[in-house]
Amino acid sequence: MNILFIGDIVGASGRAAVKKHLPALKQRYDIDFVIANGENAAHGKGITPRIYQELITSGIDCITLGNHAYSKSEILPIKDQADRLVFPVNLLPVSEMSQTKVFRVKNKSIAVTNLMTQVFMENVSQSPFDVMDQILGSVKADIHVIDLHGEATSEKIAFAYQYKNDLGAVFGTHTHVQTADERIIDGCAFISDAGMTGPYESIIGRDIEEVLMRITQKKATKYTIAESDAVFCAVFVRFDENHRADCIERIQIRP
Known about the structure:
Blueprint: E1 2-6, E2 8-9, H1 11-28, E3 33-37, H2 49-57, E4 62-64, E5 85-86, E6 101-105, E7 108-116, H3 128-138, E8 143-149, H4 153-162, E9 169-173, E10 183-185, E11 188-191, E12 196-199, H5 208-217, E13 230-239, E14 245-253
Parallel strand pairs: 1-3, 2-12, 3-4, 4-5, 7-8, 8-9, 9-11
Antiparallel strand pairs: 1-13, 6-7, 10-11, 12-13, 13-14
């Protein structure tokens, strides 16, 4: 089983990068299942029904979110139809959308869970460790994949070590900076942050001058997305016949 996880897709240039690079990567790595974080896909915050469908049409099988999951209210009315959209389990407001989703791929079951970390994060209802214990007791699957959305690398690494025997992969997201610590921990693939698929000449996707103005002049600014071509960041993981990771490769394609 071969899985590709695409790091936080940011804005129009990020979506364009997916369309440009995903077909060739799926062929090169013989990909069976594609997961992408789409919480910044709509102009940098949230996701809309149109963009959800655009990403699915581009070849993504499952879309996870994060702290901006509810930034675009128009996604809520189609939650029942958006069966490939995975909301964070422990992000307030917790609702019926906040749950693991299980997909059938090549006669195997892949459970995808979106969890928020706690350190430096807001509106988190419960520790990801406590939530993971609950999920493992109720959700059965051949391979369990986690999008662990948060700031602190130490918290993400600790989570991976805690659940290395139960999970197939833990992909960190949120910081938009790809980390060079991809590894396999006793059969569990891990990276602290998969990186960003979005404007390369930017400050984590945002307009450079706007961010500098906010920092140096303390001026209120908008959330303007940079207009440069995108970097494409992703992680490839291969699972053996025992559903354990035996290969992980970090991917970064710069414009």
